[in-house]
Amino acid sequence: MAEAWAIGPFTKLDAANPVLGPCADAHWYCPLAGNVAWEEKDVFNPAAVVRDGKVHLLYRAEDNVGRHLGTSRIGLALSADGVTFRREPAPVLYPDNDAQKGYEWEGGTEDPRVCATEDGGYVMTYTAYDGVKARLCVATSPDLRNWTKHGLAFKRMPELWGKAGAIVCRVEGERLVATRLGGKYWMYWGESYVFAATSDDLVDWEPVVHPAASAKPNQEGMPTTPDYTPRWTEGELGQTASEREALVSVIRPRTGRFDSVLVEPGPPAILTEHGIVLLYHGKNAQDGGDPRFPAYTYGVGQLLLDPSDPTAVIARPTEPFLHPDKPYEVTGQVGNVCFAEGLV
Predict the structure, then answer these.
(1) Helix H or strand E encompassing 340
(2) Of 40, 39, 87, 58, the residue nearest 147 (C-alpha)
(3) CA nearest to 178, candidates 124, 113, 114, 116
(4) Which of 104, 149, 152, 304 is within CB 3.0–4.6 Å of 95 for a Cys-Cys bond?
(5) 291 closest CA partner among 342, 328, 257
(6) Can you give the C-alpha Rg of the chain in angstroms?
(7) Residue 244's pLDDT band (cuts 50, 70, 90)
(8) Whole-prediction pTM value?
(9) What domains lie within the chain, and their CATH numbers?
C-alpha cells in the first residue's frame, strides 16, 4: 500500500506463525458449565496492547461444549518480543452469573478490541453472543487482567445487532490512548457496513443516525421516525435494509472489490497528522467480487477519515494490504481469512 498516510508496511513472520494455537490441556472451572477445556477448539481474533514493555494479547478462545459448537471466552498471553507468548492459565473475561449472562450465554464473549484511557486504565469493546444475537459490550480494567463489565455499548437500543467496536485513539509512546474529537469519543463499529458512534465516557455510546431518525426511542429502545413509527425491524442479522439506512454508514461494500460482501472495523482507529486511519476487514463476494481472490475471502484494507467529521472518508484504496496467501491463512477454522484486531 503506497499511500503516504497508510500504516505499515507489514511483513508476515512465516517462521513464527501461528504464534498461538489451541490448547487441549488448559482446564478451568467455568461458573456456568463446570470444568471445561476452555481453549481446546480455537484461539483467534486477538486484541494487542503494549504495557510495561510487553505485548499483551487478549484473544478469543473456544471450547467444544454447548449448543453453539463452543463457548467463547477471552484469554491473555504475554510476550517480550511479540512472537513468543506465555499464556495465563484462566480466561480474563467470560460469561458468568452476572448481569450480562442473558447476553453472553452460552455463545460467549468474543472479538475484543482494547485501548488505553486517559487515567492509565484500559477499555475493551467485545461481542456478547447469546446464541441468537450479537451485541456490542464494554468492559474496563486497570491492568488488562481484572475486568469490570459495563454491559451494552448501546443501552438505549438493546436489540441492536452490534460488533467490532474500534475506538479512535492517539499514539502516546507505546500506548494507543482513546482521544476526543470535538469534545466526544468516537468509535467505528458494525459487521455489514461500518457505522459510527459517540460517547462522553467510553462506556455508554450513541450510534450516529440520520436526522430523520428521532432521538426518542420506541419501547424496544430503537430509533423511530418523527411520528414514532419504528424505523428498524429485526432481520436475519438484526440489521435490515431499513435499519442500516437509519444509521449513518461510513463505508459500505463495493462491487468488484475485495470488500464486496461486508466491511467491519479492525483494531482501534489511529489519529495521525494526515487524519484518522482505520484498518478494516472486507469479505469478497462469490459473484460481483474481486476475481483475483476466492469467494468469501477476508482481506484487510485501510481508510483515511476526516477528524473534523469522523464519518467523512478522505481516501479508500481499492486494494487490501493484507490478504490470505500463506498456508496458515488459507486453511484453519475458516479458510481464506486475514483479520486484524490488534495493533502495536
Answers:
(1) none
(2) 58
(3) 116
(4) 104
(5) 257
(6) 19
(7) low
(8) 0.89
(9) 103-330 (2.115.10.20)
